[in-house]
Design a protein that fits this description.
Length: 401
């Protein structure tokens, strides 16, 4: 394939995003992408903020935040009183883990598929407290949900204080059987902190029904809010001892109409709250982008990811890494053999950079497993089309690429 070959067709919905022309953007999962109408609202809100900061941050802040929290609670199947906004899911994981009163000998459970930033938080919290991080080894590729459930439950002991589990894993794009895991761990007296970084907007959520101890998720990914929008949901019986990453005025200056949890989290100091104040519009605009609303968006994206994986497996003679019913809007596949065995060189691999420079393809390469292999992860959002994944398959199959 020549680098000058024309780019593939995209979804007509792409016109609503500001993605660079000529870029085949198959990496929504890393940072999301915000549609123009939501960014236009953010620009208007920022203009209001700068025109009268006191009006925006003092007089109107509580009401605006409450409106967006109500929209989010409705979307997540949650009560507003159990929700706080954060800048990202990693901040939610930090808030929970750093609030735990751990002792030497306590154990915190996670899996080998955990997100690196969250794993680092576990390690540091354990180092300071004398606790121990226990890692349940889940295979990849994986053949069934049982291969996830059994290693996690085997790793539980009488010392296990908390399990940090992904809803959708970042490197391997697996949808964990999270309801079953939460129930099984609850029956063993173990709280669950669910890292739902990718789940909101990808999968239907009902947090009251799921009822883990804690659930954190990003809103800038599949909901397509601006960068810096995330949430933490805390079960009511776990709220009193939970502290935000930044301690500020809310500890002794409560805001009217808020819970004690919200007092502590809602004002972290002077900052730009406009990503939080765009959440309601992101939910509304995305939901109106297809006739069937959010159910159609989720079903379409999951079907597109599955179809894309089938295309790549067929064209590159690859084996799927999990059953199709364990996919959401992403899929991770092994890179062809010609890409294996290359040394680590920088944050982004040279061949990943070349894929972008020569062919306009934005798709992440990653390393996972023991022995370590190289993989690539594709994402599907409503601005994508199946032709883009066929193009990716052509490029990866070309010996000159």
């Amino acid at each position: 394939m020549k680098p000058s070959q024309s780019r593939p067709a995209t979804s007509p919905l792409r016109q609503h995003w500001g993605l660079a022309p000529g870029v085949v953007y198959l990496n929504h999962g890393s940072f999301g992408a915000c549609p123009r109408p939501v960014l236009e609202l953010q620009s208007r809100l920022r203009a209001e903020l700068e025109a009268e900061p006191v009006q925006f941050l003092v007089r109107n802040y509580d009401e605006n935040l409450a409106q967006n929290r109500a929209a989010l609670a409705d979307f997540l199947g949650a009560r507003t009183r159990d929700l706080v906004f954060l800048t990202n899911a990693t901040a939610g994981v930090n808030a929970v883990l750093r609030s735990l009163e751990l002792r030497p000998g306590d154990e915190i459970l996670t899996t080998n598929h955990a997100y690196n930033a969250c794993r680092n938080t576990l390690i540091e919290v354990a180092r300071r407290s004398g606790a121990r991080v226990v890692v349940a080894e889940i295979p990849f590729p994986v053949r069934s949900a049982a291969e996830i459930i059994e290693p996690v439950l085997r790793a539980v002991t009488s010392c296990t204080r908390l399990a940090l589990l992904d809803h959708v894993t970042s490197p391997t794009a697996l949808v964990f059987p999270i309801t079953r895991l939460v129930r099984e761990l609850e029956a063993r007296g173990v709280d669950t902190l669910v890292d739902g970084a990718h789940a909101p907007g990808m999968l239907p959520l009902d947090l009251i029904e799921l009822r883990p101890a804690y659930y954190t998720g990003n809103l800038h990914k599949w909901i397509c809010a601006p960068k810096g929008a995330a949430f933490l949901w805390v079960r009511e019986d776990r709220q009193s001892n939970l502290h935000p990453p930044v301690i500020s005025h809310g500890y002794n200056t409560p805001w009217p109409g808020e819970t004690a949890l919200q007092h502590r989290f809602d004002w972290p100091g002077t900052f730009d709250p406009t990503p939080w104040l765009c959440v309601g519009e992101a939910i509304r605009w995305m939901g109106a982008s297809l006739p069937g609303g959010w159910p159609e968006i989720m079903a379409r994206n999951c079907a597109l990811a599955a179809a894309a994986r089938r295309t790549l497996c067929d064209r590159l003679h690859l084996e799927p890494s999990c059953p199709e019913d364990m996919l959401g809007s992403m899929a991770t596949l092994p890179l062809p053999e010609k890409f294996q065995g290359r040394p680590v060189a920088g944050i982004l691999a040279a061949d990943q950079l070349a894929l972008f420079d020569r062919f306009g393809l934005e798709v992440p390469f990653l390393r996972f497993g023991s022995p370590e292999r190289r993989w690539f992860r594709l994402s599907a959002q409503i601005y994508n089309a199946i032709e883009e994944y066929d193009y990716l398959a052509q490029v990866l199959a070309d010996p000159a690429s």
